[in-house]
Amino acid sequence: MFFAVAIFNILNLLYQLYMVRNLTTINYGILNSLLSILVIVSIPSGTLQTVVTKYISTFHTNNHPEKINILIRSLVKRTLAFGFVALLILILGSGGISSFIKIESSSLIVILGLTAFFSIILPIAQGGLQGLQKFGYLGLVMITNGGLKLLLGIIFIRIGYGVAGAMSALAIAVFITLFLAFLMLASVLPGTSASMTDDSRETPNNLETDVNFSEIHRYSYAVAAVYLCFMILTNLDVVLVKHFFNPMEAGYYSISQMVGKIILFLPTAVTLVMFPQTSRLHAQTKDTLHILQKGIVYVGILSGAAVLICFACPELIIKLLSGQSHAECVPLARFFAATMFFYALTYVVLFYHLSIGRVNFIYLLVLLTVFQVLAIALFHQSLLQVICIMGGNAVLLFAANLYIAFKAGKGSVAA
Q1: C-alpha closest to that of 306 among 271, 345, 272
Q2: Measured between alpha carbons, how far is 40 from 233 in angstroms, rounded to an integer?
Q3: How distant, in Å, are the alpha carbons of 4, 224, 299, 303, 345 from that of 268?
């Protein structure tokens, strides 16, 4: 899985590098704003995969294959309904959205909607594979997705489709990956009765009742709130800048953001390892804070080294990533790197809270998310001011959540 995640991130980075080098600064600003919207509207994806993984793993461990099949069928039906509504809203609102972010073609919003629709369904299959511990299949799905996106993006850009080609590559790649993932999941789903003894068999009605969707919904709300707030905190600024600033400035901001966003890739592997460890220790009423401390130290070292490099030679990094020297991006990139450092540390603490069932931190998270959006909307005299607002909020968010974690005590669940 670490290998697959690394390859997937590299493919995503190569996609971004190709786009920033082969699109104009203005067009890359348009693409980056669309990708930021996609990240936000696809919040249910991360939530859904986390929830599916958790409950399928539990059902599989307890030898309840019928519950696995019922859960997957139910989630597919519900997600399809939700996805169609979201797609319809984006299509009907395409004109207003394109006007807000100052792009001429509303068809880009339609392509964005299709990509979001496929992306919302994909986590069911990915979560199923992860919950059943079919990590080889899951890794293949991730690499296929990243590889197709890069390959098709290069082809469409070379043909001359521009931003529409870059977005179409995403939509097609996710659709093909979705089909492949469900084929793999169908091939490994346990039978409905072969692995169960006669004494443990239950009727479908009883199973529907035993699959506690109320509990699943409650857990989903907490996970969704964290994903939504974190994605808004680290992505909505691009959309706001695209709205409040001219196209060239928005392009410079997007390039600078790409430099800082690399730092956000770093905590992913740490949280993948930390989450199950703290969950298991908490279930055994054992101390979990030492795992959090290690996670913060590891991410701090990795992210801190990246920040030092960004501060030492920002011109070189910008040129390597964009293919051009943008002097306007140098101070922005430095501040972005420092800001993303604190958001990377915050990411670790937020998922530590979730892993031990703590939910009271969400109120503060929502409050500071709203604060950042309003502050940028009210105070945006310069691009540097926007980044400073994000940086101050990131420091406050990390400090507050760290305080909550240690104040609650060793492994305790806050009310």
Answers
A1: 345
A2: 10
A3: 12, 17, 9, 12, 11
Q: Which structure tokens are listed for 66?
A: 């019928």
Token pair of 153 as six digits: 């993006």
pLDDT in tens, 184-232: 998 888 664 433 334 444 444 444 446 777 777 787 888 888 988 998 8
CA distances from 281 to 14, 157, 278, 291, 356 (A): 38, 49, 5, 10, 9
How buried is 69 (Cβ within 10 angstroms: 0-12 exposed, 13-18 middle, 19+ buried)? middle
The span from the CA of 173 to the CA of 152, in Å, is 8
Dig out the tokens for 372 from the structure: 């950042």
Residue 64 φ then ψ, to 5°: -125, 70
CB 172 within 8 A of CB 148: yes
CA atoms within 13 A on the CB side of 114: 15
Identify the three-state secondary structure at position 62: coil
Distance, CA of 369 to CA of 364 (rounded, Å): 8
**Following DSSP, what letter does each residue of 139-157 receive, concatenated?**
HHHHHHHHHHHHHHHHHHH
Angle subtended at Cα 16 by Cα 32 and Cα 155, rounded to the nearest 5 degrees: 105
Handedness of CA 281, 210, 61, 135 (dihedral sign): negative
Q: Quick check: helix, strand or coil at residue 410?
A: coil
CA–CA gap between residue 32 and residue 252 (Å, rounded) = 11
Which tens digit of pLDDT belongs to each residue from 173-196?
A: 999 999 999 999 988 886 644 333
Nearest to 229 by CA among 373, 380, 404, 385: 373
Domain boundaries of the chain, sorted by first residue: 1-211, 218-415
